[in-house]
Give the backbone structure.
Amino acid sequence: MGEEVRQTEFSRAQRQQYRRKVQLCLDVFETMLAQSSFDFEKPLTGIEIECNLVDADYQPTMSNAEVLAAIADPAYQTELGAYNIEFNVPPHELGGLSGFELEAGVRASLNAAEGKANQDGAHIVMVGILPTLMPEHLSGEWMSESARYQALNDSIFTARGEDIIIDIVGPERLSLQSASIAPESACTSLQLHLQVSPADFPQYWNAAQVLAGPQLALGANSPYFFGHELWSETRIELFAQATDTRPDELKTQGVRPRVWFGERWITSIFDLFEENVRYFPSLLPELSDEDPVAELAAGRTPALQELRLHNGTIYRWNRPVYDVVNGRPHLRVENRVLPAGPTVVDMMANSAFYYGLLRALSDEDRPVWTKMSFAAAEHNFTAAAQHGMEAQLYGPGSGHVMPDELVLRHLLPMASEGLRRWGVATEVSDRFLGVIEGRAKSGRNGSAWQVSTVHALQERGLARPQALAEMLRLYCERMHGNEPVHTWDGPADG
């Protein structure tokens, strides 16, 4: 859920003090990069899974406070919407058979949480956007109780000075105004973390940017919002628009959006934090008591609280993270590209594909980002979000190709080699990359299954709302079966 805050209103003086403090934290961070020892000996990874809550009719239920109380596990936390929860998977190593252990552990934890949720009449759904979510669900008490969320909402609208416009053009256009950031709560993702050294961070981040397009093409799972069929991964555009602090005039002036792909390849993690400080005003200017200069001088690790809080309000699709655990600082690449779901095995496959390719691309003597423009990587990202497996993606040396050709011919062998270098057991690699292969060969990701199922149900005479609810019922049955989405049957068989 990000760093919590204690207050929802901030004075002008606080904002000025916060700006100075953030700059001071940035200066200390620069010193630490040059002098300090960061934790990175083991390639630790972490996963966050954002989930939705529905009732027996597969409609959103605003009951996360009751569900979390029933689950009573600190790994489960609130998210923005009262119909959202987040599951934080503990950090783990990549090597050996850990992938199998992780899959079993995630399934066991989610099944236990589902059982507890059922006591309150709720069910947990892993999907990029809840298909049955409608405007009326976000007109009442939709927000989780949290000072952070209320402060974020107020700060975004103070910056904008007007309602948020949502305008997404797809097979069916959606246009609406929102007087809150409620539409953002619809976006539920799978977030992948990798702990890296300061020296290795730039190539891993650059590689993650290159991979964003193929990731989305394969993993899209958000075709519906407010009953409209929009992008293959509508979550990407919806999140960008729902958190935009810029009125039209600032967009015209070229002011950068807070949901951001970025604009250049980097040579240091410092580049990203420096951009964050230079380009973006604070949304949550809450001050800590820490003197980071004094902490560093005393041989302790500064928390850099202001810098971390500020960083958490700039929504890069691949975000840099600075954190401190047991007094030791570390750096992570946080990949925020993928939607949640459809199944645990699909998410494990998505993560294996990502981590394997990240390693392979980062190890290349002449990395791919030296052979393609940053704009091309961003184009791939947007095209994949719009069209999924039907997107045209650019690759150096291959030109514009379909995702299946790019994945089967080039990326899968590289992912396999990357996982081998991480020390991942062959049987783990084969299982998860086999899911990716099946998805590429079939052209069926979560989004494609949702759309084909809804169309089939509507052809049988169901109206769109009923078709979405029935599709979600079928989706949940198959989600619990944990068979990969490319093997799912449709309503005719179900």
In short: The first strand starts at residue 44 and ends at 54. The mean pLDDT is 94. Residues 98 and 480 are 22 Å apart (CA to CA). The chain has 16 helices and 15 strands.
